[in-house]
Specification:
The chain is an all-alpha fold. Helices cover 77% and strands 0% of the residues. It starts with a helix and ends with a helix.
């Protein structure tokens, strides 16, 4: 994957939107900074993985639809990463 400033901003903005969506359901207070940063970090990890997956299939473009896919998938955060690992382990076990 060719790393550029546009791609980094694309992923960071998608993860920021995902973190805001995830934190919208919980009561936000002054003490909610640390949970927000943890949520943002998990959204960044998921956004990087989905961007990498889209890049490997040739579907990653800096346009609206791929942005919605990256942001929507990264709402799941680390649960998305756990689901990927679980599917990988199941496929590895069947071999």
């Amino acid at each position: 994957m060719m790393l550029s400033i546009e791609l980094a901003l694309f992923i960071a903005f998608a993860a920021l939107i995902a973190a805001i969506v995830r934190m919208y359901d919980t009561p936000v207070s002054k003490a909610a900074i640390v949970p927000f940063l943890k949520t943002f970090a998990s959204c960044v990890i998921a956004a990087v993985l989905i961007a990498w997956m889209l890049e490997s299939t040739g579907e990653l473009r800096l346009e609206f639809v791929p942005f919605v896919i990256v942001a929507g998938t990264s709402v799941g955060g680390l649960s998305f990463v756990r689901a990927l690992l679980e599917q990988y382990n199941k496929a590895k076990t069947k071999e």
